[in-house]
Write a structure and sequence with these properties.
- The protein is α+β, with helices and mostly antiparallel strands and 519 residues long.
- It has three domains: 178 residues, FAD/NAD(P)-binding domain (3-Layer(bba) Sandwich), CATH 3.50.50.60; 199 residues, D-Amino Acid Oxidase, subunit A, domain 2 (D-Amino Acid Oxidase, Chain A, domain 2, 2-Layer Sandwich), CATH 3.30.9.10; 104 residues, Orthogonal Bundle (Helicase, Ruva Protein, domain 3), CATH 1.10.8.
- It has 16 helices and 20 strands.
- The strands form three sheets. Strands 3, 4, 5, 6, 11, 12, 13, 14, 15 and 16 form a ten-stranded mixed beta sheet that branches.
- Helix 11 packs across helix 12 and helix 12 crosses helix 15.
- The radius of gyration is 23 Å and the shape is globular.
- The two termini are 42 Å apart.
- The structure holds flavin-adenine dinucleotide (FAD).
- Flavin-adenine dinucleotide (FAD) binds next to helix 2, strand 8 and strand 16.
Length: 519
């Protein structure tokens, strides 16, 4: 995937069948659906793919045990079906994760045991393993650092875990493989309209500071938390269709939760779900549900959220995590479809909503990563109907995502690239120092930088450290120490000068501050 080549394609095209604004899970899902139906598809992302909410999730491909508690059976069934499909179509990025719900009260074991049996049942043939009750000893064996005081036992169940940003990159590559045109750093600034109908978009190439007017038979607004900004462009009125809810995660060293199982606490003091999940070689703990007013690409974790997570983690872990133990903190904003009468953001449905306004603009909001494919299918069906595109059946249920290939554990850090791992190994054969690690505390190697620039459209140091790899989320301080070398390799590949190198180093250091906790 080469950005210059894609810009050339954009410049030489007259009219598109489908333009999608937004390169997060929702937009990418719609773009794969559209391109795989052979519709002429353009996806425009203002920053990097998955720079928004889609790189900041809890990394679960799940039915959502919480939604079961809320009684939303159809959402859980649909999500469990999609979970099963993702296991088949992106086996290099999704893995089976065991979760244990610890019980400290007599009723918790039977109560969650029955609920999780229903979860198994809803997954049907696509289930990942049967849930079962665990004795106190079995629970301790799987969770050696769980708080022992008052522990009675637990219930084990299985769900999917994935790398959200890497899936986004592989989806962008799938769009490209299917003949579509996904371009990052392209900001839509206005809509082209004629006779009250949307006919295309005005877009600025942020890198070249160049504007384009692009015509399309249909335009899809998949901008998540920014959906209202695009809607405002249709009639210059203030729209309010999404509510924002912030969720944060803290990342700790694996010693806080050794072993393979995750902890799932179904109800904290204020009724939230809390997860502690092994992720790469670290532990991810979250999350929160805090209403927020303004959308931003770089949300900031609040002190009260950090304290909430630390306090609850301490309640369930033998070793209490302190601020200085936090390797990274990251915040994301949920774009929830605005309900008419929700009391708080935690009770707002995670269902997706597709609307078409008078101008013909299609807006898709809500949903979750797990259901991105179904959201894309529903959206493109609607778009095809509106634009009078040839009616075609969806093939995405069985479409293998770029790189899709079972883990080969001998590949080490490259196993998450699936079939692309072989190409990265060739780079190391060409130049052996590209096999060297970039930092002693993280597994990443120089060849990944070269690959990310040449094939994954990484344009900035942050693209590489935050989303092509997950250095920023796994160890923010280590990622800062990697910057000069990553910038040097990128500058060489992109043919950039010393000024670019300096700017990149400064820009990254500023962003990384948002992920490092003051002690
Ligand atoms: P985004 O990822 O925000 O994408 C929208 C994109 O539009 C952005 O990249 C933005 O830059 C772009 N954009 C905006 N304006 C413009 C413009 N003018 N021109 C061009 N581009 C523009 N789901 C799960 O399934 N499992 C989980 O474990 C899970 N955990 C979560 C935990 C948290 C804390 C949060 C916040 C969410 C979680 N979710 C989870 C939900 C999931 O992450 C989101 O539903 C999903 O990522 C939303 O994707 P999106 O594409 O709609 O939004």
């Amino acid at each position: 995937m080469d950005r210059n080549e894609l810009i050339q394609k954009l410049e030489s095209s007259d009219e598109w069948d489908v333009i999608i604004i937004g390169g997060g899970a929702t937009g990418l899902g719609a773009a794969v659906e559209s391109a795989s139906r052979n519709y002429k598809t353009l996806l425009l992302e203002q920053a990097d793919f998955a720079k928004g909410t889609s790189s900041r999730s809890t990394k679960l491909v799940h039915g959502g045990v919480r939604y079961l508690q809320q009684g939303n059976i159809s959402l859980v069934r649909e999500a469990l079906h999609e979970r099963g499909l993702l296991f088949h179509n992106a086996p290099h990025l999704v893995r089976n994760q065991s979760f244990i719900v610890p019980s400290y009260k007599w009723w918790e074991g039977p109560f969650y045991g029955v609920g999780l049996k229903l979860y198994d049942l809803l997954a049907g043939k696509l289930g990942l393993g049967p849930s079962k009750k665990l004795s106190r000893e079995e629970t301790l064996k799987r969770l050696p650092t769980i708080e022992t005081e008052g522990l009675r036992g637990g219930v084990i169940y299985y769900d999917g875990q994935f790398d959200d940003a890497r899936l986004a990159i592989n989806l962008a590559e799938s769009v490209y493989d299917q003949g579509g045109t996904p371009i990052n750093y392209m900001k839509v600034t206005d809509l082209l309209q004629s006779g009250g109908k949307v006919k295309g978009v005005k877009v600025v190439d942020v890198e070249a500071d160049r504007e384009y007017q692009i015509r399309s038979k249909t335009v899809i607004n998949a901008t998540g938390i920014f959906a209202d900004n695009i809607l405002n462009m249709t009639d210059h009125e203030e729209h309010s269709t999404v509510v924002l809810s912030q969720g944060i995660h803290l990342v700790l060293d694996k010693e806080f939760l050794p072993g393979d199982s995750a902890i799932m606490v179904p109800s904290t003091d204020d009724g939230r779900v809390l997860f502690a999940i092994p992720w790469y070689d670290k532990v991810l703990i979250g999350t929160t549900d805090t209403p927020v007013d303004e959308p931003t690409l770089e949300p900031h974790a609040l002190e009260k959220e950090i304290n909430f997570i630390l306090k609850h983690a301490a309640r369930y872990l033998t070793k209490d995590p302190k601020r200085e133990d936090v390797k990274s903190v990251f915040a994301g904003l949920r774009p929830l479809a605005k309900p008419d009468d929700a009391k708080d953001t935690a009770s707002v449905s995670r269902d997706h909503s597709i609307t078409v306004d008078e101008s013909g603009l299609i807006t898709v909001t809500g949903g979750k990563w797990t259901t991105y494919r179904k959201m894309g299918e529903d959206t493109i069906r609607k778009a095809a109907e509106l634009a009078g595109l040839e009616n075609k059946n969806s093939i995405t249920e069985n479409l293998v995502i770029h790189g899709g290939q079972n883990y080969n554990h001998t590949e080490g850090v490259l196993k998450y690239y699936g079939s692309d791992a072989a190409h990265i190994k060739k780079l190391i054969e060409e130049q052996s120092d590209w096999g060297e690690k970039l930092h002693e505390r993280l597994p990443y190697i120089k060849a990944q930088v070269i690959w990310a620039v040449r094939n994954e459209m990484a344009r900035t140091v942050e693209d590489f450290l935050a989303r092509r790899t997950r250095a920023l989320l796994l160890d923010a301080k280590a990622s800062v120490e990697m910057v000069p070398e990553v910038a040097r390799l990128m500058a060489m590949e992109l043919n950039k000068d010393a000024k670019w190198h300096k700017n990149q180093v400064e820009a990254y250091r500023e962003v990384a501050q948002n992920y490092i906790l003051d002690c």
